[in-house]
Amino acid sequence: MIIKISNLVEGKYEFSFDESIKKIELEEPFFGNFHSDVVLNKLHDQLIVEVHTTVNAKFECDRCSTEFSTILKNDYVMVYLMNESPVDTEALNVAYLPHDAATINLKNDLKEFAVLSIPMKKLCNTDCKGLCYRCGGDLNKGECNCKEPEIDPRWQKLIDLNKNIKQ
């Protein structure tokens, strides 16, 4: 994931990486290889790097607890400025390189953005029905055989009213 920039003239360059996740120090839940397509646009005093990455990951569904594999995708743009780094900088996706820099290393960025692509809610599919809250049966495989709980007769009038409103 090291790109040699020392002899590049101004213009666009394309690179492709297909490597083991171990090269960018990723561990579980990731597995296999990652694939990154990189477009580097060299301008006078800056490099604009656009990266599209896909990586395989294995999760446990948050609704039904089944294991599933998925492909995570992420895109990001990084700007490398070829001058002295300011004392205080909090700019996201901006890095500073000395004028005599020969290479840029994408390893840390690839790793960080792969980890950021992990979804907050991991679902085996968007229509996952989850588990029955009474018996724990997987509702994706069919209806469970749980009996409806006895309704307290004091609530019956409200239940009837709710049914009438929905109709």
Summarize this structure briefly.
It contains 2 helices and 7 strands. With 167 residues, the chain is mainly β. The protein is elongated, with a radius of gyration of 26 Å.
Total number of strands:
7
Name the poorly predicted regions: none
Question: Hey, roughly how much beta strand do the residues contain?
Answer: 35-45%
Strand arrangement in the largest pleated sheet: 2-3-4-5-6
Supply the helix-strand structural class: mainly beta
Tally of helical runs = 2
What overall geometry do the principal axes of the alpha carbons give? elongated
- Round the Cα radius of gyration to an integer and report it: 26 Å
Distance between the termini: 61 Å
Largest sheet: 5 strands, mixed
Secondary-structure element pattern, one letter each: EEEEEEEHH
Characterization of the model:
This protein has 167 residues and is mainly β. It has a domain at 2-116. The protein is built from 2 helices and 7 strands; from the N terminus they run E-E-E-E-E-E-E-H-H. Strand 3 (30-42) and strand 4 form a beta hairpin.
List keywords for this structure.
single chain, 167 residues, mainly beta, five-stranded mixed beta sheet, 2 helices, 13% helix
